[in-house]
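Query structure, 345 tokens:
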């Protein structure tokens, strides 16, 4: 079958076209205007980015993306509460695409009570109402996406906010390059027999175990896992080097006793520390010796930030193709919807 045949049969909401047009999300967020003059007036000592699911991954990506640039400590918060240290010198960035994520609403309520400085990122919903009531600056996102397919809207909204507040240097050139990159890659990865499609084919019937590196590609590990879960409807797991060399590596010693249908995805980047590269090499030897196949994923873009965007975008395509190859609708989230219905009873 041709790719478009799979799209017609198993993708009724046409996430295929949304993936192709991902670069337009960057354009939207980067051209958006938000007034942060009131936020600028006060002193900010730390940042808490609070959100869940597709709205939280932007914070994870920011931690990797701006690891050497961010001029203030930050934390990604995925809970009903915010950390006890939060106060009037804390900037809370509340991100919920729908505006109705109950954990984010709860955390934002607490932030208001603690007199934190707050910026909201949303399309509307209860979060927008809360923001209006409390006169909080709000970055209004474009509607019409599944939250996980709106990553670039969220991420570049966050990037712009941090740039306006002078917590990161100007990123205009990187943004321009990112738009060109996603436009080019969208064309490449939507063609028949492309690289992402072939990897997806090789993963049919297997559980992906993603290995990434702390501080550098940890967000990639999270993103791949979650996209395999939600889009492809499969279990997936991720671990980070060097930590996994101090525990998980032992599990491969007895892998032969009951070989699971597993494939390891190694996320590689040339910026890794030399010792990390050596650890990856040795770890890979042990995994292959145990009888498990390794898929290496690496971007050849010139700059680290573009490589990070490229690898994440590539993974989104893999999870999409694995969904339609498995005759699954990549948009459907039946168990999440069931859970939400039960929670309101």
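Result returned for the query:
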């Amino acid at each position: 079958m041709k790719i478009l045949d799979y799209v017609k049969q198993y993708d009724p909401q046409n996430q295929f076209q949304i993936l192709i047009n991902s670069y337009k999300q960057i354009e939207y967020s980067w051209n958006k205007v938000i007034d942060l003059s009131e936020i600028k007036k006060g002193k900010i000592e730390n940042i808490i980015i609070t959100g869940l699911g597709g709205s939280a991954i932007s914070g994870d990506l920011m931690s990797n993306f701006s690891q050497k640039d961010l001029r203030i400590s930050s934390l990604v918060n995925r809970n009903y509460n915010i950390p006890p240290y939060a106060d009037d010198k804390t900037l809370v960035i509340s991100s919920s695409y729908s505006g109705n994520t109950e954990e984010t609403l709860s955390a934002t309520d607490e932030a208001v009570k603690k007199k934190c400085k707050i910026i909201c990122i949303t399309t509307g919903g209860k979060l927008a109402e809360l923001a209006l009531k409390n006169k909080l600056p709000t970055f209004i996102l474009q509607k019409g996406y599944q939250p996980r397919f709106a990553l670039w809207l969220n991420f570049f909204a966050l990037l712009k906010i941090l740039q306006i507040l002078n917590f990161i240097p100007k990123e205009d050139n990187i943004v321009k390059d990112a738009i060109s990159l996603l436009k080019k890659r969208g064309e490449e990865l939507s063609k028949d027999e492309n690289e992402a499609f072939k990897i997806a084919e090789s993963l049919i019937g297997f559980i992906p175990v993603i290995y990434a590196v702390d501080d550098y590609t940890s967000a990639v590990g999270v993103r791949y896992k979650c996209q395999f879960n939600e889009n492809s409807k499969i279990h997936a797991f991720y671990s980070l080097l060097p930590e996994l060399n101090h525990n998980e590596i032992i599990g491969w010693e007895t892998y032969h006793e009951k070989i699971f249908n597993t494939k390891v995805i190694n996320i590689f980047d040339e910026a890794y520390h030399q010792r990390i590269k050596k650890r990856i090499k040795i770890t890979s030897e042990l995994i292959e010796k145990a009888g498990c196949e390794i898929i290496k994923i690496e971007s050849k873009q010139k700059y680290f930030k573009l490589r990070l965007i490229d690898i994440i975008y590539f993974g989104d395509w893999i999870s999409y193709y694995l969904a339609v190859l498995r005759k699954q609708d990549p948009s459907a989230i039946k168990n999440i919807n069931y859970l939400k219905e039960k929670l309101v009873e």
